[in-house]
Design a protein that fits this description.
globular, 102 residues, 4 helices
Length: 102
């Protein structure tokens, strides 16, 4: 499965580690991942709105979405979850141990 990772980036000093650890676990489970925390490397000058537009396109390409433990604290992650659900994507929530649960 191709899984989009969603979670809090803004005001989260640990977002790189959060996304990397989730990506590592998802790959270990046999998935491919879309890690939006890397987008600022490729597109360093985009606005928040432009990043969100790109994120929506990436969600459309994915089979499912993986919600990091801190997603409720992120306006963008909440919007991504709502969009993924509207498209009928599989939703996986990170558990206390960093693993996924449906």
């Amino acid at each position: 499965m191709l899984i989009y990772i969603s979670g809090r980036i803004t005001d989260n000093p640990n977002y790189v580690d959060d996304f990397f650890n989730a990506e590592k676990w998802l790959i270990e489970q046999g998935n491919e991942t879309i890690n939006p925390s890397n987008l600022n490397i490729v597109f360093p000058s985009l606005s928040y709105e432009q990043y969100m537009a790109l994120d929506y396109k990436l969600i459309e390409m994915a089979d499912g979405i993986f919600m990091l433990h801190n997603w409720q604290k992120s306006k963008g992650a909440c919007a991504e979850l709502s969009y993924a659900k509207s498209l009928g994507k599989k939703v996986i929530y990170q558990d206390y141990y960093g693993r996924g649960k449906k």
